[in-house]
């Protein structure tokens, strides 16, 4: 999970289609073409969006460098380069960064003390971790993910969470 948002039935968690991490809607408003989806655009997180765009720009520069150094005549290369720029422009249009954060709920970000962010739910160095039922009220039991690390018990809502509840 990339963000510390608290998800509910109405405020859904989303998955980045590139790395698979859980993100809120504000952290995954970008769309980018993905090779495993035959370059169809899909929702990706900010980190993957930047990485995919950088890879595409690098490939585009490499392609232009190769076509410039191939030694073709001016008459042949002019129309080819024009179509290349049209093609790369179309390719760039597939990358969509949604900068309007107005759809994201304001002031919903909960304050999380830094102590609760030190250990993630799926931390490798933990002594033991797993789901347990905890009684919330007299008759209400809920399923939580617990982690014991350095003799401290951390409680999470799910096994992918970044910040502990307690």
TrEMBL record:
Gene3D superfamilies: Pleckstrin-homology domain (PH domain)/Phosphotyrosine-binding domain (PTB) (2.30.29.30), Zinc/RING finger domain, C3HC4 (zinc finger) (3.30.40.10). Residues 67-82 have a biased composition (Polar residues). Residues 125-166 form the PH domain. Keywords: Cytoplasm, Guanine-nucleotide releasing factor, Metal-binding, Zinc, Zinc-finger. The keyword Acetylation does not apply. The keyword Protein biosynthesis does not apply. GO terms for molecular function: guanyl-nucleotide exchange factor activity; zinc ion binding. Residues 1-53 form the FYVE-type domain. GO terms for cellular component: cytoplasm. InterPro entries: FYVE_RhoGEF_PH (IPR051092), PH-like_dom_sf (IPR011993), PH_domain (IPR001849), Znf_FYVE (IPR000306), Znf_FYVE-rel (IPR017455), Znf_FYVE_PHD (IPR011011), Znf_RING/FYVE/PHD (IPR013083). It is found in: Cytoplasm. Residues 59-82 are annotated as: Disordered. This is Uncharacterized protein.
């Amino acid at each position: 999970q990339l963000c510390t948002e608290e998800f509910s039935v109405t405020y859904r968690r989303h998955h980045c289609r590139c790395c698979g991490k859980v993100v809120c809607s504000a952290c995954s408003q970008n769309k980018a073409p993905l090779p495993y989806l035959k370059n169809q655009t899909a929702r990706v997180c900010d980190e993957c969006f930047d990485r995919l765009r950088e890879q595409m720009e690098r490939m585009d520069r490499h392609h232009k460098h190769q076509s410039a150094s191939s030694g073709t005549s001016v008459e042949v290369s002019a129309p080819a380069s024009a179509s290349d720029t049209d093609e790369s422009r179309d390719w760039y249009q597939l990358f969509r960064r949604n900068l309007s954060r107005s759809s994201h709920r304001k002031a919903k970000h909960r304050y999380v003390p830094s102590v609760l962010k030190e250990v993630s739910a799926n931390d490798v160095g933990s002594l033991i971790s797993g789901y347990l039922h905890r009684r919330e009220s007299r008759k209400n039991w809920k399923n939580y993910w617990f982690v014991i690390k350095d003799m401290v018990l951390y409680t999470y809502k799910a096994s992918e969470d970044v910040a502990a509840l307690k």
